[in-house]
Amino acid sequence: MQKPTEITISIDTECSIAGAFAHPGVREPVAEKAILCEVDGKEHGVGFMLDVFKRYGIKASFFIECAHYYYFGDNPMRGVVDRIAEAGQDLQLHVHPCWMSYIKDSAIGEFPQSDICKDRPYDELRKIFELSTDIFKSWVGKKPVALRTGSLYADLNIYRVMRDLNFPLASNVAIGGNVPDEEELYLHSGRHLIDGVLEMPVFSYVDMNIAGQKHVKSLQITSCSWPEMKYLLKKARASGVENIIILTHPFEFIKKSDTYFTEITRNRVNQGRLEKLCKFIAENNQEFVAADFGSYANNWLERGERTEPMIEIPTYYSIGRRLHNKISDKVWAY
After folding, report:
1. What is the number of helices (H) and of strands (E) in the chain?
2. 8-22, 47-61, 170-184, 316-330: lowest mean pLDDT where?
3. β-pairing verdict for 264-266 and 192-194
4. Which whole number is the average pLDDT over 256-260?
5. CA distance 62 to 90
6. At what angle do helices 77-86 and 122-140 cross, to 10 degrees?
7. To 10 degrees, what angle do helices 122-140 and 156-164 make?
8. What residue ranges define each of the domains in the chain, with the CATH number in brackets?
């Protein structure tokens, strides 16, 4: 009998530079609006997600960005981490290295504003990961078992550093967004050992437009319609796929007037997608199960590598998704 297909809802939980590098002295980084996403006294970011997960009994993995400590200090993220932990959700490490440029102590190091972990010298990247891990441990009370690089940029050097720092799991690849230069990292799903680190890529699939052109997309709440997502989950299970990693962010559940979060409002479309996904997992628990990185780490490591088939979807799902997303993007109150 086929075991339940494991669905991991992964949430990159992070502050936003919000134009501070491009407009120094004019713009400032954003914290609460990008994490809590409060509108009229109600949270539509982390708070909304925790409520949905509780309602449907879903355990997800929140990848916490820690380097912004060097700009904001402990708060607000430490309080958010406490709430996530109290809700019984999983916490892992997310690294956006651009925040390291705010370090004022030359004894710690000097870092460029680049937000990309790939193509960095080994020693510099190791220092970035070590500093981020130390902050994570001070907030969570333990070391993470998994790490995800900012914006899912990956190269082989990242795995060498992770190996030497004893990180067993990674989720650094989403080929529908950023295609790695190395062929070894062109991974659309499954479990893959890279330098002793088990990479669990964001699930990617193939769709086709009306002109018959195929392209690869990664499975994200903000870019995939619910009918498309439901089709993918069912087809993946029918194809024997064991792991499906889904990507989202707290700020995907609001709409913002600009990159500075000047005005925000609830994103009803994306909120509906998350609720339908969680309800689907809960109602089909013989076929699907929510699998977070912390709880499943040893299980995945014991099972080891697995290559999955590439899933394709019919063109009409692509057309429907594009129309739905376009309406949502254009109509503020939709």
Report:
1. 10, 15
2. 316-330
3. unpaired
4. 95
5. 6
6. 60
7. 50
8. 5-330 (3.20.20.370)
Q: Is the pLDDT at 186 greater than 90, yes or no?
A: yes
Distance CA 307, CA 139 (A): 35
Long-range pairs of 119-125 with CB within 8 A, sequence gap ≥ 24:
119/155, 119/157, 120/157, 122/157, 122/160, 122/161, 125/97, 125/157, 125/158, 125/161
How far is residue 252's CA from residue 270's CA, in Å, rounded to a whole number?
Answer: 7
Q: Helix, strand or coil for residue 295?
A: helix
333 pLDDT more than 90: no
pLDDT band, very low/low/confident/very high, at 211 (cuts 50, 70, 90): low
> Which residues, other chains included, contact 201 with Cβ-Cβ below 8 Å and sequence gap of 6+?
171, 172, 173, 174, 175, 187, 188, 189, 190, 192, 245
Percent share of the chain, pLDDT over 70: 99
Element housing 62 (H / E) = strand 61-65
Between residues 190 and 333, the one the model is more confident about:
190
Using the predicted structure, report yes or no on whether residue 225 has a pLDDT greater than 80. yes
Residue 260 has pLDDT above 90, yes or no: yes
25 Cβ partners below 8 Å, 6+ apart? none
Q: Which two tokens mark 119? A: 């193509």
pTM greater than 0.85 = yes
Q: Which two tokens stand for residue 213?
A: 């052109």
